[in-house]
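USER: Write out one fold?

ASSISTANT:
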Amino acid sequence: MTDEHNRSPTRFVDAEQISPFRVLLDLHDRAIGRPATRSRHDVLAELALAAAVVLWWTRWQPMSIHAALRAGADLADIATATGLEPAEVVRRRTDVQTQLVIGGRPAVDIEEVRTIRRRLPVRVNR
């Protein structure tokens, strides 16, 4: 639900319908302008927006990892950039390869997958 005076949603189902970039901006604005005393609406809106950001990012991080690999970054670079262990980087990228289908097609081109897989160390435990 939304408050008449503040359009930020207080429910996750509403927050996830907003553009991911708008959600980030709204969450930023709430964090910067946080009053000393927050209302029930303020706290619930912040929770809903934060939950939507987390969901959005978990959907997009594997694609960002794939884009970094495509651009020539190596596993160590990506692990450093994300703060993840190399095996977790590989796992997250693999998850998107096997699970994300857009318009009935895999989100990642199979030839790109093969090319990048050849560049990854064989010994990474998945």
Remarks:
- Strands lie at 101-102, 105-106.
- The CA atoms of residues 88 and 126 lie 7 Å apart.
- The longest strand covers residues 101-102.
